[in-house]
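Handout, page 2. Input:
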Amino acid sequence: MRRLLIAGNWKMNCGPYDAAELLEGLKAKKSEVNENVDVLVCPPFVSIGMAVKYLYDTDIQVGAQNLHFEENGAFTGEISGSMLTESGCNYVIIGHSERRQYFGETDETVNQRTKKALEHKLAPIICVGESLSQRKADEHYDLVKDQITNALNGVSAEEVLDIVIAYEPIWAIGTGETASPEQAQEMHEHIRNVVANLYSQDAADSINILYGGSMKPANAQELLSQADVDGGLIGGASLDADSFSEIITIAEELA
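Output:
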């Protein structure tokens, strides 16, 4: 049985002081979590240390929002996998739609980052998903299949068990729109079938697939009740301790 994963992507929000306040609120509500649910926060790089400090005695884990695919060197502004593990991270988000749109991430660099994360025992959360125009053109299934296939190029059958995939319907991020539970389930099932075809049904049945399109308390139960939705990559709602903890509680009730 797959464990549910509720992951908060803080994006470019919450420096150390604001992070401390948010973490205090979250810790007060959810220092202990149901054994069948994993909880994760992914702050900006400058707040990772604060998160590790505040959450060390809780069930909440810490991840990062990106990493570079080189180990070290003249890459101003970048951060390496070894730096993240040394800082206390367990997960790292890779290929988020905003990274692809604004910072030139490609399927190739997503693949490079994925392999580097695995090398450092960081669980990659690989983001895939389509724009509204791609969905309207009925290209979304092929697009997501290609994104997954390229991201996992060279990843072994053993390594893929440590990977998380997050489905982002780009048209539902920050727009107030949300994919219907049926739309989410259809794509999550498709993603699981892609993994099965690339590896095995056992691998596909083991991998966590998160919904990453504006999950919030109002829609979390309906989305998390879908057979192939194994959690959420939460944006805005993760910046509010009450909202994020409510989503966690919903996941605990379903686990």
